[in-house]
Design a protein that fits this description.
about 150 residues; alpha/beta; 5-stranded parallel β-sheet; about 40% helix
């Protein structure tokens, strides 16, 4: 429930981390995961800043797909992998699959990758075969991921 850090704060955190680690000389592999990273209005500008100013080996993003298709298409230009997770209690199903399909068309393997984690929500299992068929028809990598509710 905390407020999102603004772009200046995010840059400062990165710059401090970079200053303390650059001497190691290893490529950076950064994975951005949830909460929902795209909910922060400074997230995409941060990714643009990192790509423009630092040699980052890989950047990966996990998202629920709630941002616009245009947002994800821009993000796809900047990151190496986007992993979408289905959350049927929060989504617009048609928009989600349209976005995933559009992003997958521009994230061509092996350089880039797009994947969908079909979250194993017990109340939504009857839809899994339809989701997998749709994703497979569009050549979108996918898997069913168990959610532990205990």
């Amino acid at each position: 429930y905390s407020s999102h850090p603004d772009l200046d704060r995010l840059k400062l955190v990165w710059q401090n981390f970079y200053a303390k680690t650059q001497h190691i000389g290893l490529p950076y592999k950064i994975s951005f995961t949830g909460g929902e990273v795209t909910a922060n209005k400074s997230f995409l500008p941060l990714i643009e800043y990192l790509r423009s100013n630092y040699a980052i080996g890989q950047m990966l993003v996990t998202t629920n797909g709630s941002a616009s298709t245009a947002y994800y298409l821009r993000l796809a230009e900047l990151v190496d992998a986007i992993s979408f997770s289905t959350h049927s209690e929060y989504w617009d199903e048609q928009k989600f699959f349209e976005t995933v399909t559009a992003v997958n068309k521009v994230m061509i393997r092996p350089e880039k990758s797009c994947h969908v984690n079909i979250m194993d929500e017990p109340w939504n299992r009857e839809n899994f075969p339809r989701y997998q068929e749709l994703l497979n028809q569009n050549r979108v990598s996918n898997s069913i991921n168990l959610i532990r509710y205990d």
